[in-house]
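Protein record
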Amino acid sequence: MTAVLVPLVVLLPLLGAAGALILGRHRRAQMAVSLGVLAAVTVIAAVLLVSVDANGPAVVYVGGWDAPWGITLVVDRLSAIMLVISAIMLLVVLVYSVGQGIADQHRETPVSIFHPSYLILSAGVFNAFIAGDLFNLYVGFEILLSASYVLLTLGGTGERIRAGVTYIIVSLVSSLFFLSAIALVYGATGTVNIAQLSVRLAELPGEVQLMLHLLLLIAFGIKAAVFPLSFWLPDSYPTAPAPVTAVFAGLLTKVGVYAIIRTETVIFTESDVTVLLMVIGGLTMLIGILGALTQADIKRLLSFTLVSHIGYMIFGIALGTQLGYTATIYYVVHHITVQTTLFLTTGLIERFGGATSINRLAGLLKASPLLGVLFFIPALNLGGIPPFSGFLGKTGLFLAGGEEAAADPANAWLVWIVIAAGAITSLITLYALTRFWNMAFWRGRRELEGYESVLLGSVLEAPEGATVTATRTTPVLMVVATSALVMLTVCLTVFAGPLFELTGRAAADLLDAGAYVSTVFPGGIR
């Protein structure tokens, strides 16, 4: 019975997008369709999570064609966790965007375009998480690309068009690598089914495995924005409307991380790139956060912290242990929630204060204490202050690293270097966010004119120069949606024990590739 629900997580958003497009002239009906569809998908995802956690993975062979001939959809614990957190984020951000649209007469997010594109984006995200073969995963990425470009260029301003062009060029390059890798994989093995590849790739020469492995890692690394493939992100995300930026920052890079996890745990179990991933993880942390230090605009600052914190996830994947994957999955959930929350809060700051640069903001705490709280809690969380989920996730990763260093003395020095990089990154993240807090919230409004501080000595405005916007009203729906996500970030701390147990079971599944293979191919795969 549960298997019947699996295709609905993709079908409902696609049908909803068609319905929203038909209802383009009826704004309320269109918004009701979008909200109803994502609410339904959230419930379905929760049911799937409970079911697969109790009964094992759910597998659907589309059209009745058994694998590997047909399209296979697979939901295991990791897929279900990603579906649930993604559906929640998409639903809450949609509520936020509805509130913003009503207040601004839909200038930033015109319903006739925004809602269909948003639902198509959702379908692409969900499809990527349940894809059982590489080509279907590629289809999910392409659905994301088509919808993302529309959402990124909403409003048609020159700045957004330039950012959209950069984004689509980079995405097309990533897709080219991915499609080339799929063609080579199929040519070498005769299949693109992930479970079947687990066996057939292991039979290839090591050099061939490594070449295919690196091609896929490049494609997924661009999607995940890992160093040195992350150059495009800080200039692309900050230009979009607040709801779009929040979804992009919270979810899209995690689709790339998810693909890397599948690659490392199922497809290339015999090809070891641990040292490469470890180095990339450490460099992604440090280069990203050093970029954040120089930013005066909070949207660009958060974009650089987004890049840096992807490094923690790559580090956890590189460890390849159950504790490493347990902490990585927990950290992915934490980061999706906290990063989305911070970008939504930034949208509130821009509306309330009229700008997003610390050179132009002051006195926000006195003017709006609630806004101060909504920014302060997730900022501390992202910085890794105890007892928040950011601290718990990083501690889990560092403990996993310590265990791996003890088990593998040959690479222990590299593990400890990356752990040190992670600790430094966390401290710099906290510094960068508290600097913004001090300038924008704590500093008095009267001090803004001619204000000088060592905290501002090294920061730079965004390219092209950020413009000061008129202060606008802050709709209740925007505040409610942001507050709900702040509460969810707190819940990740309060219920960290059960969540770590769940991610631990998901990690155990990942390390048992044979169970995944036998589930997708009950009768054997040869």
Q: What stands out?
A: The mean pLDDT is 85. Strands lie at 58-61, 72-75. The chain is about 75% helix and 0% strand.
